[in-house]
Amino acid sequence: MPLIVIPDDEPPVMVPSRSYTKLAGHDVRTYSSRPSGPGELVERIRYADIVINIRSTTRFNINVIEQCPRMRLISIWGTGTEHVDLQAAKEHGIRVTNTPGVSAIAVAEHTLALMMSVSKQIVSVDRQVRQGEWPRAMVAQLREKTLGLIGTGAIGREVAKLGKGIGMRVIAWTFHPDEGTAESVSFEDVFRYSDIVSVHVRQSSETFHLIRREHFDLMKRDAIFINTARGAIVQETDLVEVLRSGRIAGAGLDVFENEPLPLSSPFVSLSNVVLTPHAAGITPEATEAGLTLAIENVFAFLAGYPANIVV
After folding, report:
1. 49, 149, 171, 303: which has the fewest Cβ within 10 Å?
2. What confidence category does residue 197 fall into, taking pLDDT thresholds of 50, 70 and 90?
3. Average pLDDT in the 109-117 region?
């Protein structure tokens, strides 16, 4: 019977889930803390045939992979694969799978919440009311405004639906254009013509610091920037500069280059930014669906019909 190891269920999501019962009868070892580094990770998975990866802080670099000769599958809970050396996995005959689409609705709803929070100044107005003030801010109305999407994968498509649902015009740039999701425009034109720009591409070598000062400089001064994808897609120092100077009106951010976001981050002191802790996809429904799919990917692999393959 193959050994299945879950090396990083902290804080616990797998063990308390209904999905975990699907592994009953299998040889499973689950760790309720995150490995402190590559050495401890290797200690946990050295003899594993299959790894179910929960946290992106657990990094499968080439040194880890080379020390785990029995490993045949890394089943990731989530869509991001930046913490896995995919080339090394491929060279060592290791399949890598993920769970695409399961959190699309949750992330799209969170994106809309950030759009509303920033444009309506909900956080700052709430703070003022609690301090005894009664502000009369002239906040933005989103109907008939333009929502620009960078990426129209599963999440981008859901955001497009929500945008259209509140009466917004939706334009988009994507690596893989599809008909019907949004009006297709150039990458630069998303920034040039949008009242809200929202990012929905996967982090990769192609998208690292994809969005920089030159793109923010194209935006309208009253435009808003939203990122629920990955922090490293954006050159954060450039974003801080345009927010601090008032070059754009505000931002809603769920993701950052360094997580958890340190208190020393300049984002913390900016009043025109709404911050959330990389939590867009964390709903009971999305969590359960993702964990179930991560386990089903294991069963599909064992049956000889691997699904949701990254490499």
Report:
1. 303
2. very high
3. 98
- Of 230, 244, 257, 288, the catalytic one is 230
Q: Report the number of distinct structural domains present in the chain.
A: 2
Partners of 28 in the beta sheet?
A: 4
Do 76 and 109 belong to one domain? no
C-beta neighbour count of 275 within 10 angstroms: 16
Residue 230 catalytic?
Answer: yes
Give domain status of residue 310, yes or no. no
DSSP H stretches of helix in the chain:
38-45, 62-66, 86-91, 104-119, 122-130, 154-165, 187-193, 213-216, 236-245, 284-302
Of 91, 183, 188, 259, which is the active-site residue? 259
Residues 128 and 263 in one domain: yes
What is the per-residue pLDDT across 129-143, written as a single tens digit (0 to 9) for each?
A: 999 999 997 899 999
Q: Are residues 57 and 77 in the same domain?
A: yes
CATH number at residue 85: 3.40.50.720
| Residue count of the chain | 311
259 is catalytic: yes
300's torsion region: left (phi>0), alpha (psi -120 to 50) or beta? Answer: alpha
Both tokens of 8, joined, read 């990083």
* Catalytic-role residue among 46, 82, 278, 288: 278
Q: Is 278 a catalytic residue?
A: yes
Can you read off the two tokens belonging to residue 311?
Answer: 């490499």
